[in-house]
């Protein structure tokens, strides 16, 4: 608005100046006229632009039917229907409850973290290309919306390592929301949920880990499941493993259909060391996987984007 006013003032001045042409000797008038006209055209163009910008702002749609919330009665289309729990939250609770029944503590993740917890504490070497796979967004302050729940491993280990001295294992799960710099499609979202698991004791093995994971998936899908692993790579585990289940028959799975459910492995000695746990004395395993994926499969949904869509028709199906 201020800009528009300034331009109008300028135009007025130019017009006044132009009027003074009559005071000039005749031979100078043409040249003066050309100059002042060029100036005027310039300001007029700027003015048109500024006015258009104002109109564009005003043209943004306004919901004229919006209820003012004061005097009149509430219109019918402002529903008093109660909302319901998001299906992801319902399932996340189920996941956490299963782990709790298996003896795990629960720690919540966070939505902003730092470089140390995101990379260094997880044994990502500086400049290592493995960092690229977890590259997400950064705030102006350099904080990072976590790309996985593993960012909580260091904190969980530090918080619960006192148990080891009491002869008990560290057993923690960490549900949380995670963010990726992702090309979104039916199976990839930029925002989704994961659950991390961490277990440390004096003599745990990879075999124990597979037992825990199989138990979890069988309880979650309420049926016996075949499992399989294949080698993977994560800087924070050694060895690293990708864990798969055979696609349940009720979900249309045939013999030989395998679904990759999560990444896991034996916690790298450097990760234990950084949290003040002696890797010569203790061993650990950890895993992390998407919740959205679990839920998609459980309900036979075809597109991960429904979860963040805010689509009421979808949400009402889970009331
Ligand atoms: N954080 C990994 C991811 O999101 C998954 C993962 C792999 C978690 C191995 C772990 C682990 O705890 O040990 O891709």
General description of the model:
The structure is a single chain. With 319 residues, the chain is of the alpha+beta class. The chain has 2 domains: 2-59; 87-316, BirA Bifunctional Protein, domain 2, CATH 3.30.930. The protein has helices at 2-19, 26-58, 87-101, 115-118, 153-160, 162-165, 206-221, 269-274, 291-299, 312-316; strands spanning 105-106, 170-179, 191-201, 227-231, 237-246, 258-267, 283-290. The two termini are 49 Å apart. It binds 3,4-dihydroxyphenylalanine. 3,4-dihydroxyphenylalanine binds next to strand 6 and strand 7. 3,4-dihydroxyphenylalanine (DAH) is lined by residues 148, 150, 196, 234, 236-237, 263-265, 286-288.
Low-confidence stretches: none
Q: What is the count of structural domains?
A: 2
Kindly estimate the percentage of residues that lie in beta strands according to DSSP: 15-25%
Q: Class of the largest domain in CATH?
A: Alpha Beta
Number of helices: 10
Number of strands: 7
Question: How large, in whole angstroms, is the Cα Rg?
Answer: 31 Å
Q: CA-to-CA gap between the ends?
A: 49 Å
Class by SSE composition: alpha+beta
Assign the CATH topology of the largest domain. Answer: BirA Bifunctional Protein, domain 2
Mean pLDDT: 90
Strand order, largest beta sheet: 1-2-3-7-6-5-4
Largest beta-sheet details = 7 strands, mixed
CATH architecture of the largest domain: 2-Layer Sandwich
| Fraction of helical residues | 25-40%
CATH superfamily of the largest domain: Bira Bifunctional Protein, Domain 2
């Amino acid at each position: 608005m201020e800009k528009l006013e300034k331009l109008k003032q300028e135009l007025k001045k130019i017009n006044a100046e132009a009027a003074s042409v009559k005071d000039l000797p005749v031979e100078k008038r043409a040249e003066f006229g050309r100059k002042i006209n060029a100036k005027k055209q310039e300001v007029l163009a700027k003015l048109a632009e500024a006015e258009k910008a104002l109109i564009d702002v005003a043209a943004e749609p306004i919901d004229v039917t919006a209820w003012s919330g004061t005097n009149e009665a509430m219109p019918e289309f402002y529903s008093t229907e109660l909302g319901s729990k998001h299906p992801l939250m319902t399932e996340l609770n189920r996941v956490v409850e299963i782990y709790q029944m298996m003896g795990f503590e629960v720690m919540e993740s966070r939505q902003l973290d730092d470089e140390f917890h995101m990379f260094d504490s997880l044994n990502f070497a500086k400049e290592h290309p493995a960092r690229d796979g977890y590259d997400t967004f950064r705030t102006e302050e350099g904080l990072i919306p976590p790309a996985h729940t593993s960012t909580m491993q260091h904190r969980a280990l530090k918080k619960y390592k006192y148990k080891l001295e009491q002869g008990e294992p560290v057993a923690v799960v960490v549900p949380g929301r995670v963010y990726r710099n992702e090309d979104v499609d039916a199976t990839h979202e930029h925002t989704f949920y994961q659950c991390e698991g961490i277990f440390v004791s004096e003599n745990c093995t990879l075999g124990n880990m597979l037992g825990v994971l199989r138990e979890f998936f069988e309880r979650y899908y309420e049926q016996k499941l075949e499992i399989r692993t294949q080698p993977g790579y994560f800087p924070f585990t050694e060895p690293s493993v990708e864990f798969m289940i055979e696609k349940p028959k009720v979900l249309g799975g045939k013999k030989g259909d395998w679904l990759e459910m999560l990444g896991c492995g034996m916690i790298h000695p450097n990760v234990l060391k950084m949290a003040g746990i002696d890797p010569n004395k203790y061993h650990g395993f950890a895993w992390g996987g998407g919740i959205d994926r679990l839920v998609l499969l459980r309900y036979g949904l075809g597109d991960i984007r429904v979860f963040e869509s805010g689509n009421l028709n979808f949400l009402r199906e889970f009331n």
